[in-house]
């Protein structure tokens, strides 16, 4: 059975080997990516398209609730106005 100090030394050795393997594989991956980029003439915009994760500009939202006495409307987002706060909202639906 290994002692605590032996196990710590083994862990340090393994951590060092892991870091070296990561660095080596990362360098290999970068080299492969460079070959493909040069082969197909790719640019940064080809690789990193911003269309996928872009959120919309936060346009207007249609109102969901209306106060029948004043005509005031609320979208249902944010803090509820006093005229609907704590009440059954189904009767105010538009």
Automatic annotation (TrEMBL):
Matching SMART domains: HNS
Q: Where in the cell is it found?
A: Cytoplasm, Nucleoid
Q: Which region ranges are annotated with the description Disordered?
A: 54-80
By sequence similarity, the record places it as follows: Belongs to the histone-like protein H-NS family.
Q: Which Pfam families match?
A: Histone_HNS (PF00816)
Supply one GO molecular-function term. DNA binding
Q: Which UniProt keywords apply?
A: Cytoplasm, DNA-binding
Organism domain of life: Bacteria
Every DNA-binding protein H-NS-like C-terminal domain range: 55-94
Entry-linked SUPFAM superfamilies: H-NS histone-like proteins
Protein name, please?
A: Histone
What InterPro entries does the record tag this protein with? Answer: H-NS_C_dom
DNA-binding among keywords: yes
Q: What is its main location?
A: cytoplasm
A GO term from the CC aspect: nucleoid
Q: Provide the taxonomic classification.
A: Bacteria, Pseudomonadati, Pseudomonadota, Betaproteobacteria, Burkholderiales
């Amino acid at each position: 059975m290994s002692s605590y100090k032996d196990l710590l030394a083994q862990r340090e050795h393994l951590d060092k080997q892991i870091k070296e393997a990561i660095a080596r594989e990362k360098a290999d991956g970068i080299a492969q990516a460079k070959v493909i980029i040069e082969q197909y003439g790719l640019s940064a915009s080809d690789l990193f398209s911003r269309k996928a994760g872009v959120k919309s500009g936060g346009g207007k939202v249609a109102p969901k609730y209306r106060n029948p006495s004043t005509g005031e409307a609320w979208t249902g987002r944010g803090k509820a106005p006093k005229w609907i706060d704590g009440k059954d909202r189904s009767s105010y639906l538009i």
